[in-house]
Design goal:
Blueprint: E1 9-18, H1 25-43, E2 46-51, E3 58-67, H2 70-86, E4 91-99
Antiparallel strand pairs: 1-3, 1-4, 2-3
Length: about 100
């Protein structure tokens, strides 16, 4: 417990994506920048490309959310994943969510 106020809940998500229309790292970076900007502004979540930086069509994104309520963290991260699944220029290959 922190300062008698409440619990610190941390949620993370790792999402593996495929970018079928990417033919260069420049194409990929354009897509990555667009995705990260939209997710950060819509969900107010920390987000970064965490792996596969040199692959043209593969992308791994990491997301982190901090709250005092576990349900809120889970719903928010699931919202990010649903958002990614609806994007026309990428395909979600796999994802994992962890809340501690």
């Amino acid at each position: 417990m922190l300062g008698g106020e409440g619990w610190l809940v941390i949620g993370t998500a790792i999402v593996d994506l495929y970018i079928p229309g990417s033919n260069s790292l420049k194409d990929k970076r354009r897509v990555v920048r667009s995705i990260l900007d939209r997710i950060r502004s819509r969900y107010n979540v920390s987000a970064a490309e965490i792996s596969n930086q040199d692959e043209w069509r593969q992308l791994t994104l990491g997301f982190a959310w901090v709250s005092n309520e576990g349900g809120h963290v889970c719903r928010s991260l699931q919202g990010v994943i649903r958002f990614l699944e609806r994007l026309p220029d990428v395909e979600v290959i796999d994802y994992s969510v962890q809340v501690i």
